[in-house]
Amino acid sequence: MNTIEVPGGRVWFKRVGAGDGLPLLVVHGGPGLPHYYLSALERLADQREVIFWDQLGCGNSEHPSNPDLWTMRRSVAEMDTVIQALGLRDFHIFGNSWGGMLAQQYVLDVPSGAVSLTISNSAASIPVFAANVIRLKSGLDAATQDAIDRHEAAGTTDSAEYQAAITTWNETYLCRSRPWPRDLYRAFQNMGAEIFQTMFGPSDFHIVGTIRDWDVVDRLGEITLPTLLIAGRFDECSPEHMREMHELIRGSRFEFFDNTAHLPFIEEPDRFDAVMRAFLAPHDGA
Q1: Which end of the chain is more exposed for a tag (fewer CB within 10 A), N or C?
Q2: What's the whole-model pTM score?
């Protein structure tokens, strides 16, 4: 199995495809939601190598139980170690959701050979994200809201009623495609619960973990890489916030997906592929 030693343990990676284009490094979300749900990006592997890795604590990587590991600083160090171990010199970065946050922090803090950055359905501020999630929850039907609040307060989130309410949330603000693809279910089945609970908290509605105050809005002007921001109309990550991010990253490109929640590569695959190919190709010679 292909593995890399990173701070805290060993992580798994996969390299797919080939072509004249520069490699694309894919950074998954969660924290702790492994790469499976992003397998759709293998469609881009006819023009370039596409590289996936499961961050420490989830998926095919080692699952150490040590809450001290689950910080933004260590995650950035892990990403840099992966990039160095893979020998990536000139490459593109794609980050979805939490992966987009990690990618932003990485390019802000670590000099590398990255030639472009794609921030897909993400945020530059956990406080902004948290406020938007609460706003969206208030738009759900009263019974669903009540089930979420009541079971989270009681610590009974394993109940069928709570799980049904979270399914309603996920089918509204995470992925609106029906049925969900197997790769998305597989990602949730292999999620690193300790990572999510330590970094975020018990749920998206109570973000009390190690990155609860994370915010790089004031640093977005430091990003000089060619940058693409992808937002969805129904996304739990506010498209309005992503538009503001676009305005702060000089020369960036903003693409709005009208029929997407959080996963455009699943929900609007043809347009997603076209947008990605059009953005990446001009920077392959950078």
Answers
A1: N
A2: 0.96
